[in-house]
Amino acid sequence: KYEVVDGREVVKKKPAPFLLFEDAGFLITRWCNAHGKPAPNRKFFDHLTNAHYALVKRFFPEAFLLRTTDFLRPLAAHRQQTQPWHDWPVITISLDTDFVRGTHGAVEITRVRDHETFNFLGELARPGEPPVKEQIAAIGAIMPKRHALQFVSDGCWEGSEILMLEEYFRRRNIMVDGTVCGVLCRKAVDNFNDAGMPASGSHPYLGLESWICQRDLLPGVPRSGLNLGMRVGNRAQALAENIGATYLLPFREDVFDELTPHDLTEFSLYCYRLADGLFAKLERLWQRPILVRDLARVPKYVRLGQIRFRDELRRIAREFLKTRDALGPCI
């Protein structure tokens, strides 16, 4: 592709590959099951994903979609086919029990950012889980002699959490055999190579420049957005409530730098409409309003308590995006 710049014909920069990972239906269904409530059917979630993907393609033509059904089975097969990199038998450790099950143990860890500045604070345990060092100590206590750990993850973007865990276990004289994951990106490969960590992926996307999970574009979905915390002295600490910031306005302005303010506002509002349609469907199935207290993760700026979540979506659209009746067509 070419364009004219200052009277000269030049080659346009090749668009960067952009991955949208479908996971909202999977997470919402598990959340409904945990509440003992019915979940929408597969047809509804397919329609939701198709609409979401069409939106992403409109603003990012280079985007492609990875559906959950095209991810879980290849990852399971890849795990079975992967042989240990060392001679010792391995103890498998899941780093994401939503998508990776059937392992010997798990460490639930996530990256956390400051709730005001969004600056990176470090890696902490997922909300509701014991502190990371306690999880590591529990695995170390049951670790057989002459065995090695093998981490299993849904995906590795940079691999910083895995390298941190490898160091923690090494201090306990426990060897890490390597990492098996789903989506494997170039940054993680380079960091693993520098650290001497073997790794393989069922979906190696080494040219990937952007990777967004569908949940991060739908306020109210479990695990949606960044985990938020705070710094107390020299230590990072989780907030009392499980609060996250989706990759939309007004929560984040720095994720989609290539979009103009107008386009980012339009993109965010359409995602709000999709989220409103999702929770409207859930309210019909549950036969009652979905309250903020029902949510597994509460979006930043949403008021806590017995407040209807869809009302809060409308309020945020009005107060922060300055758009009158932004969600009207979906209500």
Explain the overall architecture.
- This protein is α/β, with parallel strands linked by helices.
- It has eight helices and 16 strands.
- It has helices spanning 24-35, 42-59, 69-81, 132-142, 160-171, 186-195, 261-286, 309-320; strands spanning 2-5, 8-11, 18-21, 63-66, 90-94, 105-106, 109-114, 120-125, 148-156, 176-185, 199-205, 210-213, 226-232, 235-238, 243-245, 298-299.
- Strands 7, 8, 13, 14, 15 and 16 form a six-stranded mixed beta sheet that branches.
- The longest helix has 26 residues, at 261-286.
- The model is unreliable at 1-7 and 9-13 (pLDDT under 50).
Oligomer state of the chains in this structure:
single chain
Q: What's the order of the H and E elements?
A: EEEHHEHEEEEHEHEHEEEEEHEH
Tally of separate helices: 8
- What share of the residues lie within helices? 25-40%
Poorly predicted regions: 1-7, 9-13
Number of E-state strands:
16
Q: Tell me the span between the first and last alpha carbons.
A: 42 Å
Approximate strand percentage: 15-25%
Structural class: alpha/beta
Gross geometry: globular
Gyration radius, in Å? 21 Å
- Most strands sheet: 6 strands, mixed
* Overall pLDDT confidence: 89
